[in-house]
Amino acid sequence: MLADDEVRAALDAIGDALPRRTENTRMSTMGAGSDDLEAGRRYLAAAVAEGWAVPTWPKRHGGRDADPADARTIGRVLREFAVPDLYPYMIGLGMAGPTLLQWGTDAQRDLWLRGIANGSEIWCQMFSEPEAGSDLANLGLRAVADGDEWVLEGQKVWTSRAMWARWGLLLARTDPDVPKHAGLTMFAVDMVAPGVDVRPLVQMNGDKHFSEVFLADARLPDTWRIGAVGDGWKVAMTVLAHERASAGGERGGGEGKVRGARVPTWLRELRDAGAFSDVVRRDRAMRIHAADLAGNWTSDRAAASKEPGPAGSGAKLRKVASYKGHAYTAKDARGAEGMLDDSDGHIDFITAPSMSIRGGSDEIQRNILGERVLGLPGEPRVDRDIPWSQARKGVI
Hints:
Layout: H1 4-12, H2 37-47, H3 68-78, H4 90-103, H5 106-117, E1 123-126, E2 142-146, E3 149-160, E4 167-173, E5 184-190, E6 196-201, E7 210-221, E8 225-226, H6 232-249, H7 265-272, H8 279-303, H9 312-333, H10 346-351, H11 362-373
Parallel strand pairs: 1-4
Antiparallel strand pairs: 2-3, 3-7, 4-5, 5-8, 6-7
């Protein structure tokens, strides 16, 4: 079993790519994202030799075959370091990689996993469409077999990281004449191949981290199919389970206790600004801090699991609530200054509403918890058993 001091010494040896955190270290916040690809790539390239970034992965693919206990130790010690913003890399590290480990062939793992682990290749996820958001199984992008290739036609939207991505996970409809969940297949797509057109979408906070993607006569070999034909929904559920666990584990404003620090940076800033003289603000801050600590504990457990279950929805809900709490409390504590567009925390404030939608809406996460954890009856679905081609679409 790894000891904290052993991990700490090894991480210190990484050098400038992974400096220690201090009380004044200002970490990136969940969801705001970053265009700084180089800092994350430098860290991943340095960490891959000993598998620190993806410890539960096999050594041959950039991990260290760590068991859950060692993975929790590594995650705990990493909080003492200023890990660069890995937002551009998280679909590969947190979703595509684990899915390939479960569903991919040996050849696919050898082709893609090392590039994910060392940061040389960024991945995106192409699921949502104009008529398939929360009802993901209603998607209509077609994949038609042509010999040992597949031809793709259709549109995806709200595709995270597409503007940076070299590869993408794509869920496509391969059989329109069976019920909607049964006619789907998962593929890996070369994002710079002919027929793939990526168009960034400008968000309210100025980010361009989502895109719409148009595929017209885009071709890929059958060797890039992930899982069996028609098993796309099963593979997608694996991807989404890891997405929820990953979102639940991404950093909000509260990073847990920094080694040697008496209070987290955000709490110290509120205290120094005099916000704690107001009992309501003080109570709100303490509730958020308590939720942060509980969320970090939940995230550590999820990160140490090779197969996250529906409880990951709880981690995602908890982290989203934490992010919103930090953003709104910080804005309120700054008083009149907080109304300015260039004030500290303004980007977090205008990013916050989207956090309840991206990565699966809060309502969907609560449905998952209700149905799969609490055993409550599912919502009625009138189109579950009819062929997708016969289901009504675009009807309000």
